[in-house]
Write a structure and sequence with these properties.
The protein has helices at residues 8-15, 44-47, 70-96, 108-111, 114-117, 130-143, 159-164, 187-195, 200-217, 223-243, 245-251, 268-277, 282-289, 291-296, and strands at 20-23, 32-38, 48-57, 122-126, 147-152, 168-172, 257-259, 314-317, 328-333, 336-339, 358-366, 369-380, 383-389, 397-398, 401-405, 408-417, 420-431, 434-441, 446-453. The chain is of the alpha+beta class. Helix 3 packs parallel to helix 6.
């Protein structure tokens, strides 16, 4: 079992106010069963609230083997489901009258489908994009299993189809980065205006004349510039729909929970505020974190609200939860207090001066354990480059992007492991000879990362 009460991710999730979660295994088309856990406890067994709760599935293809495509996964899923149905029926016939019948063979993969076929277990299917949702809904219609869509990111155009399928829903809390517009101020011009107000009108006239002259001489935009503007407009519209997805489902009268499969814990509350700003009512956002998931999981008698007889899970913040300055101070999990160490100082300081260049021993905590690599950063004038090697990496990799802003280091690279290509983004805060932060690996999620500088540097 990979369930560890000392896992840092549990502490991070408690830090943003989570006390229970539905956790699922990692990787592949049929990784295994999901489990409901409490985010606290002395042992893995003590954390488990409902074991083998869900049948977790993905459309993830195999590497260099069948099924290696999305369509192949769908075909294989149908084959396994229908074969499991036949096996189950045969076992029932054999159990009722064994005479003259061959003893049925045992197959753990097919037998894992039995609770799904009997409607005793729900299929939690990861479906991030429109095509994924369409494919999963097709499978559900063909096979008839009870469905919950998980980590939905781009499903705003699928509202009516999801609603018609009577599928439960967990929307992703991972959002695209906000576009930040840089504003340049001409301090010298401002000073002149402030010092000589009497010439303000004259300056305005001069500026107006210059603007008119520029307009007359202005060249028509090139095809590349026009295309760039169109792309930027589409990107802005896409992000608007993405952030407003929760509000879209709410307006359609659908209840939903939130998924943290691919979001960094530090971004959760900020992303919730963005959704609220895009039209999601605060009370619905709060319900989607508490009472609604408890209802979807069938655990309203134990979780979701504060009431007599329910599990003593409680979160206390110093301001209303969705307030930008709110900090979670105390978290109770099953009556046990987890006091949060809250620092009022920002982790990153864009004005700090640190020596980033050198060799760093990097430790990343992934579900399979600790991954050890080496990061070598070089500085050339004002630019940086980096190489990564060791651990599971088959060879030395040159980083595609390295940026340093104060004591904040960001490194991006692409790695191919066991035939699978993954985009890796590391963002850390440097403190002298050490750093801490997170590493995001494609769609597999974000993991804690620490680094220690080689004493020679």
């Amino acid at each position: 079992s990979f369930l560890d009460p000392q896992d840092k991710s549990l502490e991070e999730m408690r830090g943003v106010g989570f006390t229970a979660a539905h956790v699922v295994p990692f990787g592949g088309m049929l990784p295994g069963n999901g489990t409901i856990i409490l985010l606290g406890g002395a042992s893995a067994d003590a954390m488990i609230l409902s074991n083998n709760f869900s049948f977790y599935s993905e459309l993830t293809p195999a590497q260099r083997a069948y099924p290696a495509t999305g369509m192949g996964v769908m075909a294989k899923y149908r084959e396994l489901y229908r074969q499991a149905t036949l096996n189950k029926n045969y076992q029932n016939v054999y159990a009722s009258n064994r005479a003259g019948l061959e003893r049925p063979t045992s197959d753990r993969i097919l037998e894992s489908f039995y609770p799904v076929i009997d409607k005793k277990q729900t299929v939690f299917f990861k479906a991030e994009k429109v095509l994924d949702i369409q494919r999963v809904l097709t499978l559900q219609k063909d096979l008839g299993f009870t469905l919950t869509l998980v980590d939905v990111k781009e499903g705003w155009d699928m509202v009516s189809k999801v609603k018609a399928a009577n599928a439960k829903l967990f929307l992703s809390l991972d959002l695209p980065e906000e576009k930040k517009e840089e504003k340049k101020l001409d301090d010298k011009k401002d000073d002149v205006v402030k010092k000589d107000d009497a010439k303000e009108e004259v300056k305005k006239e001069e500026v107006a004349k210059k603007d008119e002259a520029v307009k007359k001489e202005e060249k028509p935009k090139s095809a590349n510039e026009l295309e760039k503007e169109k792309l930027e407009k589409r990107r802005t519209e896409f992000i608007g729909k993405y952030v407003g997805q929760a509000a879209t489902y709410q307006k359609a009268g659908m209840k939903f929970g939130f998924s943290c499969l691919s979001v960094k814990s530090k971004d959760i509350t900020a992303n919730l505020r963005r959704m609220i700003a895009a039209g999601l009512p605060e009370d619905v956002a709060l319900a989607s974190l508490t009472t609604t998931p408890a209802e979807i999981f069938g655990l309203s008698d134990r979780l979701g609200s504060i009431d007599n007889g329910k599990i003593a899970n409680l979160v206390i913040s110093d301001k209303p939860y969705f307030n930008e300055k709110a900090k979670v101070r105390y978290v109770f999990v099953e009556g046990v207090l987890y006091k949060q160490e809250v620092s009022d100082e920002k982790k990153g300081d864009k004005n700090a001066k640190v020596e980033i260049d050198g060799s760093w021993s990097v430790t990343t905590e992934i579900p399979q354990g600790k991954s050890e690599t080496t990061l070598v950063v070089k500085k050339d004038g004002t630019t940086y480059s980096a190489k990564v090697f060791g651990g599971q990496l088959p060879q030395t990799i040159d980083a595609s992007n390295v940026s340093v802003e104060g004591n904040i280091l960001k490194v991006e690279y692409t790695a191919t492991i066991s035939g699978q290509t993954m985009n890796v983004k590391m963002e850390v805060t440097v403190d002298g000879k050490t750093f801490k932060g997170t590493t995001t690996v494609s769609n597999f999620g974000s993991f804690p990362v620490e680094g220690k500088k080689d004493p020679k540097f």
